[in-house]
């Protein structure tokens, strides 16, 4: 299971569950009552961590898109190893922390009788050059740029998967592999689209407010913001639902892991699905082991590798097939 894609999916899940745990409830209470109850320390954390988690989430999706692009469009080129993947994830978090630091540094709590507010006190006040520049940088770096990367890579992958056979792969011999690749690409496109739609109103709201403060004085703006905020925060809960709806092995594996629960039944069909997956992996691994030296040469990743296979460096002279 330790494929490049799965490493990034775990990082994506960690980012989502962290935001759901540490930010969603506190931010919703504050938005609902317009009174900050949680002190200066958590005010700083509250303004800092959502940007960090969001950056990690969307760049994990972008990394998955690039990895899928390399696996399908350029299968002969070297792939990320497990160690390199962990390094990339660490770098994503480092950059995320640096990007979110200004939000933490300038956060303050101020008392306006009878309530306390948590805000980011920019050097030139809210709506000044610093705040607008930072907001535009956030929109570019944690929304528009990664979405553009994913749009380009998935478009090229989609054209290759649905527009004809994979280069170097006889489509009749690798029909099941191509089908698996298509399913995973569909699933990730749905994940990315869901993320983009959930966060679009949130970014538009703050961009408009940066240029026109009068928006915040409208009669129903609090209700509008609560709806926008709820939609943005809800993005952290959709991915497991998407995986469950679009991935049969995920459903089977989930039921197996939670079969001890009273309302979850691990059926024979689920058992067959998981056994078929393992049998197919072993069969394809042995087949590749017998053919790789003759067809592709030692130590190379051949064009016939399935969707989530990976080249893991010098020790992986005969990479295993993983779907």
UniProtKB/TrEMBL annotation:
GO terms for cellular component: plasma membrane; sperm midpiece. It comes from the Eukaryota. One of its GO terms (biological process) is positive regulation of flagellated sperm motility. Coiled coil: none annotated. Residues 289-323 are annotated as: Disordered. Residues 1-243 form the G-protein coupled receptors family 1 profile domain. It is a multi-pass membrane protein. One of its GO terms (molecular function) is substance K receptor activity. Keywords: Cell membrane, Disulfide bond, G-protein coupled receptor, Glycoprotein, Lipoprotein, Membrane, Palmitate, Receptor, Transducer, Transmembrane, Transmembrane helix. The keyword GTP-binding does not apply. It is found in: Cell membrane. The chain crosses the membrane at residues 7-28, 48-66, 87-108, 132-157, 184-204, 224-246. Gene3D superfamilies: Rhodopsin 7-helix transmembrane proteins. PANTHER family: G-PROTEIN COUPLED RECEPTOR TKR-1-RELATED, SUBSTANCE-K RECEPTOR. Belongs to the G-protein coupled receptor 1 family. This is Substance-K receptor. It comes from Gadus morhua.
């Amino acid at each position: 299971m330790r494929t490049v894609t799965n490493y990034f999916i775990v990082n994506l899940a960690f980012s989502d569950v962290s935001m759901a745990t540490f930010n969603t409830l506190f931010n919703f209470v504050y938005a609902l009552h317009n009174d900050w109850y949680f002190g200066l320390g958590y005010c700083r954390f509250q303004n800092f961590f959502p940007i960090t988690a969001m950056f990690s989430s969307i760049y994990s999706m972008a990394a998955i898109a690039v990895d899928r692009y390399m696996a399908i469009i350029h299968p002969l080129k070297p792939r990320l190893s497990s160690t390199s993947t962990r390094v990339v994830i660490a770098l994503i978090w480092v950059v995320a922390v640096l990007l979110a630091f200004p939000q933490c540094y300038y956060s303050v709590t101020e008392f306006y009788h009878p309530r306390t507010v948590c805000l980011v006190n920019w050097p030139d006040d809210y709506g000044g050059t610093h705040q607008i520049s930072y907001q535009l940088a956030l929109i570019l770096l944690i929304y528009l740029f990664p979405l553009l990367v994913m749009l380009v890579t998935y478009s090229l992958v989609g054209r290759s998967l649905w527009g004809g056979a994979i280069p170097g792969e006889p489509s009749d011999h690798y029909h099941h592999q191509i089908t698996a690749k298509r399913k995973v690409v569909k699933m990730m496109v749905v994940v990315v689209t869901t993320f983009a739609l959930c966060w679009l109103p949130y970014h538009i709201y703050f961009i408009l407010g940066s240029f026109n403060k009068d928006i915040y004085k409208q009669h129903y703006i609090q209700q509008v913001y609560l709806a926008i905020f709820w939609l943005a925060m809800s993005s952290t809960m959709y991915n497991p639902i998407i995986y469950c709806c679009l991935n049969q092995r995920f459903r089977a594996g989930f039921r197996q892991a939670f079969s001890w629960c009273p309302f979850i039944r691990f059926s024979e069909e689920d058992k067959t699905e998981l056994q078929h997956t393992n049998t197919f992996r072993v069969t394809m691994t042995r087949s590749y082991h017998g053919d790789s030296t003759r067809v592709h040469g030692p130590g190379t990743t051949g064009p016939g590798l399935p969707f989530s296979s990976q080249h893991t460096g010098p020790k992986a002279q005969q990479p295993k097939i993983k779907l």
